Amino acid sequence: MKPRILVTSLLLALGTASVFAQTTAASTVQRDVNQQTRIEQGLQSGSLNTREAGRLEKEESRIDQLQAKDLKDGKLTLRERTQLRRAQDHASQDIHAAKANDIRGNPQSASSQRMQADVRRDINQEKRIEQGVQSGALTHREAGRLEHGQARVDRREANAARDGHVGRYEQAAVRRGEQHQSREIFQQKHDAQHHRG
């Protein structure tokens, strides 16, 4: 009787640890959604201009790259979670500072409208990744690869906005990257690999 209780307890503990790891990975991606939403809101209200949003996207790219590296082995250790949380906290403070300074943007300008559209697409992509991790349709490794793709998209956005103006051709290049990333998310979510909880 006692060995069965021990085995049951062990299986329950392993299942709980797996759910915790899955939830933790999803929560770091959810935080990406929140940060991107704040950037979009700043652009829409004019509290962020295009150049500021570009600098913030560069920081988001570094966070996505860190997530990609941390999830590469399929795990997220306590040390990695702490490092990610610290980076995301720093980005959150930078978003707040940029929105609260005296620099204003014109939300109606073509450049801001382009940047808003790109950031909105980031939000949707990150939500799709987060949902895939939550549902088990994405393994942690797959989520890591997708975050690597998000890092590339964010870098393209940062480069496009570096001079404070996102032109039509710059946005077209960003969109090509976003479309490629969208296809990758779809393929990874619908392949035979699933997170085993």
UniProtKB/TrEMBL annotation:
Region span, Disordered: 42-61, 84-117, 146-197
Keyword vocabulary terms for this entry: Signal
Basic and acidic residues bias locations: 52-61, 84-102, 146-191
Compositional bias of kind Polar residues: 106-115
Top-level taxon in the UniProt lineage: Bacteria
Signal peptide annotation: 1-21
Key word Signal present: yes
Name of the protein: Phage infection protein
